[in-house]
Amino acid sequence: MPAQVLQALVAGLLIGSVYALLAAGFSLIWGVAHVINIAHPALAVGAAYMVYALATRGVDPMASLAIVVPLFFAVGVGFHEWVIRPAARRASELALVSMVLTFGLAAALENALAAVWGPGPRVVNVSYTGVAIRLGELALPVSHVAGALLAAVTITALYLFLYKTFPGKAVRAVWQNRDGAALCGVDLRQVTSLTYGLAVASAGVAGVALTLIYSFSPASHLTWLIFVFLVVIVGGVGSLVGAVLAGMLVGAVINLAALVIPFAWVPFLLFASLGILLLWRPTGLFRR
Amino acid sequence: MSRAAVAVLVGMLLVLPWVGAREYPLALLYSTFMYAAMAVAWNIIGGFAGYLSFGHAAFFGLGGYTTGLLLVHAGLSPFLTAPVGGVVAAVFAAMTGYPCMRLRGPYFAVVTMILGLIVRALVLNFPWTGAAGGLWMPLPPWEPLAARRVFYYAMLAVFVLTVLTARAVRIGKMGVGLEAIREDEDAAQSIGVPAVRLKISALMLSAGLTGLVGGIYAYDRSYIHPDFMFDLNLSVLAVLMALLGGRQSWFGPVLGAVVVRFVDEILTIWIGTEAARIIFGLGLALVIVLLPDGLLPHLVQLRRRVPRKSAGRPVPVVRP
């Protein structure tokens, strides 16, 4: 059944692009600020609920980007200035402290969403929900393609920013060597704030893409967290290209695996492949 | 704390159920012992060795599901099988710990967190664990007050066992080795510290004790579900309590557990669950922002500043 396999592969790549976008922002924060942002998928789910609230008032998810992106950029900058910086000044082990800290924020956000919209799952319906493009035997839901395209465009924009612009190069310099970058006159505080803004804004975009592909509930950020972690471990922290490749790989593997093994065993497969990966290449597949 | 103070405290806790304590205080102390035992057990690998596990809920849940399944299918009392739960958790820890221990620092923390989440997904999907419906067990055969007393003593015993184990590890040769690993693993290995063996032993001890706690807790609930037996909250709470109290001794995590447990209880009573969870999450974030290295270093500093009446003997130096 090659058609089924192809269908699963394409579906996996489409959803994989959203994993990649989430993981890119997550690993950007990890690399530049040494903060492990457990709240990253929770922020995406928060964005999804914003899209949902706007969609019930007739705003298309794509149009809601105009609100989500600037708002989430501001949230990211504020988060760095008022939450992370005070903690970083006092903490001796920022990575550990930040995991507990951002977990607390994620839990607060999850419960706030549950308090407003209830714990049940929600879906966003748009005019093109249920419409599919047919390519031979392949059927591609328009909303999935739109979500994946959105993720792909955002990742490309991030890539161009990081590799082609001066501030982007400063971000990468801090990522590679914090002290060295500071010695060359890079303003660490500004660069870190900018990174936060971009990363959280990209989480917002991922949330918008999410509403086009999946249903979501306040607790679903935990499932997304597994995928983000997997992608980052497979791709290695410190590489945007690694995150993209790993995101596609994880998406494709999960979808293809679901064809051959019962669904209940998919987590087991993830588990086993993670163990093998750690024994074989503990620093990730795509790390330089 | 001095030896006499500890003896008096344990004595008071032992007689408490017989001097008029009703169900509620017993239940509150029971859950405090549980959290404290988890935090102290976590600290064996997280504090002493510096390997920060964010997946201890997996061990807790495995212990709970072991006793639960043994009770349902073989009719064995969880008080007998809780050690089996601990062994299952320890064996699982050894199997997963071996690949994970190749990672250090935040990588280790993140991978253990994934492990915890994946184990939860596994149990949610396997029909023989009750899957998403949860697992119903026969009720414990006691009246409510008697049951509270029984579980109070059981958890107190587990807590004391955990503290004694952690203390023995800390003051023994193993503790020295773990400290060396925490400070500089490569240097420690180069002078002959068997790092892998020590790390795996510490993780197994930590996981086994956590599994034991889970086994007792499962019997008390008599209905278990992956959502709370493998709750990420539990993993993070164990870290938080150790972090809040201080990670260098067995006493820090106990202090952290008492603080966290009582704050949580007060919030739940006064505000109700959902809003309490929001406040708890934000409060947790605030505490971490203000006191990222925990309470104990500040308390020690406070003690240093205030000259004590029995001056003359040097104040013990506790590294922050």
Q: What does this protein look like?
A:
The complex is a heterodimer of chains A (288) and B (320). Chain A is built from eleven helices and two strands; from the N terminus they run H-H-H-H-E-E-H-H-H-H-H-H-H. Chain A has helices at 2-33, 40-55, 61-90, 94-117, 142-164, 166-176, 178-183, 188-213, 221-235, 240-260, 266-280, and strands at residues 132-135, 138-141. Chain A has a two-stranded antiparallel ribbon. The two termini of chain A are 37 Å apart. Chain B is mostly helical. Chain B has helices spanning 3-15, 23-48, 56-74, 78-100, 105-125, 144-171, 173-183, 185-190, 195-221, 226-229, 232-245, 251-271, 273-290, 296-305, and strands at residues 135-136, 223-224. Chain B has a two-stranded antiparallel sheet with strand order 1-2. In chain B, helix 2 (23-48) packs across helix 12, helix 3 (56-74) runs parallel beside helix 5 and helix 6 runs antiparallel to helix 9 (195-221). The two termini of chain B are 17 Å apart. Chains A and B meet through helix 3, helix 4, helix 9 and helix 11 of A and helix 4, helix 5, helix 11 and helix 13 of B.
Main attributes of the structure:
heterodimer; A: 288 residues; mainly alpha; ABC transporter involved in vitamin B12 uptake, BtuC; two-stranded antiparallel sheet; 76% helix; globular; B: 320 residues; 75% helix
